[in-house]
Amino acid sequence: MRKRIDVIKRGNAPKWDKEYAKFEEAGRTNGAAVYSDHFCRNIAPDIIATIKESPFERIVFITVWDLTSEAIKDADLIFVVLHVQPGENMKPYAGNYIGKVRELNSDAVIVSITSVWETHLCLVNLLEEQDKRYQSLFLPMSIDVVALKKLAGAIPKKKYQDRILFFGNSYENKDKTRGGLIKALSFATASENEAPYKIDIICNNEYIFSHEGEERLDERKVVDRKEMLKILKKYQYVVATSIAAQEAMELGAKVIFSGRKFGGVVTTDAEYDVQGRSNFSGDICTFSSAPINCWYAMKQARNYRAMVWEDIENGFIPDLISILAFYGEGEEGEIV
Fold this sequence. Notes:
With 336 residues, the protein is α/β, with parallel strands linked by helices. It has twelve helices and twelve strands. It has two domains: 4-142 and 309-326, Rossmann fold; 146-300, Rossmann fold. It has helices spanning 14-25, 31-51, 71-74, 90-104, 117-128, 145-152, 176-192, 225-232, 242-250, 269-277, 291-300, 309-326; strands at residues 4-8, 58-62, 77-82, 109-114, 134-138, 163-167, 198-203, 206-209, 219-222, 237-240, 254-258, 262-264. α4 (90-104) crosses α5.
């Protein structure tokens, strides 16, 4: 019997597409959509090649949060890509979402894929003991660097040296984390320069170029994803989290991780691995919890690049193969 593989993604997920249309109408970029595109284009083909010899015949990939497809009910193997960040509130959310998939199909093997190590462990403890046909896999967040650089274009040799860009949702958190970081950066940069570095912002697809201290007001303009990346590549210093942080690193920036919490910087490969297990979210702090210390150390550290699928597949595929073997063919060919 020929395998049937359904991929639920942008364009064939009615509920998701309706919600995503609101982002498009507002000119906004959605990180889950960006990762879903990357997963379908670069990661899913290698997973499909790995499972082609497995006994599963009806396979579904859920890469966006939409459970309306009838294919889910008929599948015998379901992959669920969980778009979650660290945090206590996300653990029950992820578990409840897997529960909704199980309600639609009581027999299929369900394999969740999450980029947050903490969430992965939570799901293992929460669900694997209760549901013998459920497994969780950890897959560090990666980005499509080819697509990124195609949109952004060549990285300039000269970047802004006296400006810091808050990129993405890192600026939306209007609390002490953001305010304290800006004060610390202003103090640190003022001690190096005659004046503090200027703070620019890209948030919700709006670019704010600061002219603080000059007669002109801040310049504001709406930018699409391509324009956004062309601006991003001009900055040497960026504050960001998650996919936005990885995009900044890949375009040559040194990054401070700060969102809901202050996450420090990476100055060693070990610190990079720690941040990678938390999706560069800022929820785990590396190097120092003092922004001034992080600023000076970051400037001296080497540049780090984004994670790419080719670098992490050798750790992921063997885990997938072990799961397939666990649910492999019995002596008479049935799934056991």
